[in-house]
Design a protein that fits this description.
By secondary structure, the protein is mainly beta. The protein has one domain (about 40-315): Lipovitellin-phosvitin complex, beta-sheet shell regions. It is about 5% helix and about 45% strand. The chain has 2 helices and 14 strands, in the order H-E-E-E-E-E-E-E-H-E-E-E-E-E-E-E. Strand 6 (about 145-150) and strand 7 (about 155-160) form a beta hairpin.
Length: about 325
Amino acid sequence: MAQKRTLDRAALRPKLVRSDKPDYGPSMINRPSLGDQYGFPALATVLVLLGGAGGAGAQQSARLELSGIPGDWLEYNHRNDLVVDLPTDLGGPATTHTTIRLRHVVESASADAITYVTTLEEVSLEVRPTPAELPDLSGIQGLQFHHEASRSGRTLSLRLAGQSSEAGPGLIEQVESWLGRLGFPLLPQGVVEVGDEWSETVPVPAMALGLAVDYDVVQTRTVRLTEVRSAGSSTVAFLAVTTTWEPSPDPSGTGGGVASLRGSAEQLVRFDTRRGRFLGSTGTSELELVLTPQGTAQYVAVSATGRQITGLTASSDPGSDLRE
């Protein structure tokens, strides 16, 4: 069995660290709440945005890096099912089903980077029971952007279609984090062995989630290579991904209210090392969000548990698709 190593990944900023799961503490779901302070659309949007021994042919190491030639395309389907425990004045328990169909087309490639034209072909949100209002997702349906990434998946630049200027660092960080939640985590540089892991901790500002409250989250995502094995004409690496969210000790929001979010997600990601592309992922998540209006001791508490699946459903090289 390989000895665990600490990887020196200078290309991953900020500094790589290791994180353990947070202590959730006692449940606060049945406490009093203020439903008139926060509507279901805002809460649902937060939860959607936030919302896991080798046999024959097993190997002990692999090089994980994105690859492709101009014109190559990949299409992924993502589904996220959540069971949301809402207070009674916000409608009570509910289920949400989010589906996303994403298409990547390789626009250009160099030794150090690869550029995709990424299109959100389809985005939908279904809630049962149906509330009076739902988040309007029509504005992102068909959204297209040019996304340049390093071979390890680090976003180097981002430009929305039809715009001449590049996006700022805030939007780049949001897109990179969103891709990670869909099942496309950052990869290490160089060869890694089974048992190696790499992690990154980043702040998530309140404004990134659309909440006008004093609210920041610290997100830590840890990836571990668990297995490498041959599958047909390809070699598949299996990655165990753990993501945790904890309240920041120094919130920077300006809304006056206070919010706290704790949670974790587990994913199993499959990556085709020979063709340099993600094959899919499955995962689960647990979240607890508590909102406290300014000047009160009451709060709105929402918890959710979810299951996510992302799969490669079509590509320009269909004969090599691996969807097991």
